[in-house]
Amino acid sequence: MNQISQNIISKLSELILGKDEQLKLALCCLLSKGHLLIEDLPGMGKTTLSHGLANVLGLSYQRVQFTSDLLPADITGSSIFNTQTNSFDFHSGPIFSQVLLADEINRASPKTQSALLEAMEEGQVTVDGTTHTLPEPFFVIATQNPLHQSGTHPLPESQLDRFFIRISLGYPDTEAEKSLIMAGNDRSFKLEDLNLALTAEELSELQAKVMSITLSEPVVQYIIDLVSFTRDSGEFGDPLSPRASIALGLAARAYALICGREYVLPDDVQAVFGPVAGHRLNVPCNEQTPVVESIFSRVPVPM
Amino acid sequence: MSANSLVKRNTLITSLIYCAISLLLFQSLGYVFCVSIVLVTIFKVSTTIGAVKNPSKLVVNLLAVTVIVVVFLSLGLKNTIEMFVAMLIGACALKMLQVTSAQQATSAYILNFFTYPCFYLFSQNILAFAFVAGLLLFNLAQLFSVSHNLPIKTSYKSSVKKFIFSLPLAVAMVLLVPKLPPFWQLPNAKSANTGLSEDVDPFEITELSRSSELAFRALLPAADIFQPPFYWRAIVHDRFDGKKWQMSRLQGVGLQRTYQPMGPTYSVIAEPSNTRWLFTLGDGIPASKGMGVNHFGTIFQKKLSNKPVQYEVSPVDLDDARLSRWEYAINVQLPEGYNPQAIELAKKWDSETGSTQEFITRMKSFFVTGGFNYSLSPPAIRNKHNVDEFLFSTQSGFCGHYASSAAFLMRTAGIPTRLVSGYLGGEFNQQSNYYAVYQYDAHAWVEYYVPQQGWLRLDPTAWVAPDRMFGSLSDLAELEQEFKDNLGISLASFSNIRAINWVRLQLEQLDFHWTRWVLNFDDKKQSSLLKALFGAKHNFLPALSVVLILIATFGGWFAYLNYRKWKSQAKEIRLYNRLLDFGKVQASSLTPKQSIELLKQKFPRAQAELSEFYTLFESARYNTESLSREQYKRLSFLNRRIIKKAKIK
Questions:
Q1: pLDDT tens profile B138-168
Q2: How far apart are CA B614 and CA B616, in angstroms?
Q3: Angle, CA B124 vertex, CA B214 and CA B503 arms, to 5°
Q4: Does this model's pTM top 0.90?
Q5: Which of A57, A282, B531, B588 would give a disulfide with A300, using CB separation of 3.0 to 4.6 Å?
Q6: B interface residues, A as partner, C-beta within 8 Å
């Protein structure tokens, strides 16, 4: 199992250079069957990462570029009148795929955003009174530009909550950037070059394995202490919900699995806490690290 | 166990305790009251087992009224203390019928800390102490049990622990905190039903020989004047009304002058009794506060106490060689029209003899040869001419009969004579060097006046039963059987079984020390103890010791709590914490991994061991599989090794 995840990470790191931690978190999100939100400035490799993830996991994917005039039907699909059968036929939209890449999700209008987010939560789409089940597995990997950029509609808190993990890639280090420049605009080649790292069975096996990771009592206590801190300290306008607590436990397990351990350490909790809790606490990406560090420094690790 | 069934069980036990207390106090509280408490308890038992429904408010109120009426009718207003205690016990017992919630039970248990010690109003010996202390301990446990919803066993353990921790504090408080007089006091309960009586009907004293209760204890220093037989004087009866020997008003006359003691003082610890009169060997004057002495040389308490009283006596020889006319008159006084045969006999002897001594010799030969016998259960004499009846008809009796008859005969002959009641003998306790005198040692004898010599003692009983003069009645082989028949069932009646006798003596001794050192620990003893303990510095050292003991007690308690916390931690955590303490790592917000990394930086030498330690620690702490014994050993070993390596600079 460890080898499989190591394999995936190493393949992805050929594509996204020097961002192993983010890759681990992204994989952790998918193993926990959660949706991933990648927030960064344009040109940082958000889209590349999402393509790479879908490719490596061997899943069918569709990409939708969100724009301000995108309508819900453009994602979900619509019923079109068939003159031969005299009935409406449903033409499924790009959402009917295993991985939906929602590029620049915060450029779309709130109406369209919520159509997507509904599908994320329910795993199904209702068009004209007919419910259509989405394929299994179904992931949304959304990218978003920082909110200060022009022409963005911020996602409401309730919808941010649907994203399991938010990561930010950040600037590459010098070495990585050098290699990027050397390779030039050879990205498409690289993407196609990625072999399938695992089959669909292996993926579901991996996902099932997440729940078998031991989450010991002191670690659960640590999660509870961290969550309570956000509720009791009064520093956060949007404290963490129980859904966030569940997500923390799950993400820590998946992270431990990716690290090749059978059990969760407080360190795993710390590793996933920022990405899992940051967007739920409404902390901007660039402030996430100091805020999380200050929480860690004030919450004792239970023994 | 549910909270409800805990309350049920606890209140049932408490009801039974109330029942036991009232039965133990039945002599003071009366049969009627005890029976009603037993009935209430039976009611409680039947509601608990479900045979009867829980009583309604009306029923409980009716019961309460009934108990109040019972208390008033059976005890009345005269016995304030008994009534008060009976009311309290009755109210508590009824409360137990009503209790349904833990909150109600809690308040009842808090009240019990007051109710149970009421037992001390009636008895303060060591057994009573053990009994009440045990009850209080159990009550504490019950309080914990109902208020914290714990099983009785668990809460009992915890209450015993708290008791043990508070013990040094209690001892320090008793020993060192200044003793202040009470702000208010209850009138004393009439606790003692045995003892001497101020009026002696010679035909009544039989009652005493039935009781193996302790009368008093005496510590006699080694001195020539303290030689057996020990005649312990208590009450002087100088007035005879034909039936009873009574005390004349002369009792109130105090000593006329001061006397030099003729020997070392001795100390007596008297059990509570219903007379104020205390015990002296021969004449004595008190060397303790709160005692008075009259001109007979008998000592009395100024205020009757229901606690054991300890006092010191200086032996003196009262200068009573001269007898005033009114004293003379009182001491030959006899009522007219009684005992004509005895008067005739005495007058005959008087005319035939010349001196008091000769008269006594004559009387002695009459008693020795007259076929008299000593008996603890003589036939009852209800004749008006009781002395005649005894002397010429029944001729069987005990000290009272002999003393009374002798005094009657001597007074008839014009010899000033008085009857003295007190105790004879005592059981010597080898280990603690004291004499224990029991109620069955009660005795009566005669004192007669000889001009120039003063008052002399005469024990007519000794003529008939010479053995009676030495040792206690319980030692007397001849009377043993009869004595035991009269004694009823108590430990003393088994004194020929060695084991039981041993137990009896040990208990006896324990109680002696209890009475001497605990019950009689007063301000005087306290100050002398402080002086002995701290010497000249006794002004501030006691306060210092109180503070130190307080600190030690609370410190001990917190240390114990910490120890328990420490003990409850898993071994790997203890070892890990030891490493952190050793490395001085403030690790509360660090994960173990981060802390170990810090340690690795601090102690680069021990990196390998730290890594291995961490691996084991991690799997012990965060994996569900626990470590094997070998792995734990390895963990401890690594711990020691890391510390050792880190110490090398």
A1: 999 999 888 888 888 888 888 888 888 888 8
A2: 5
A3: 55
A4: no
A5: B588
A6: 569, 573, 576-577, 587-594, 618-619, 621-624
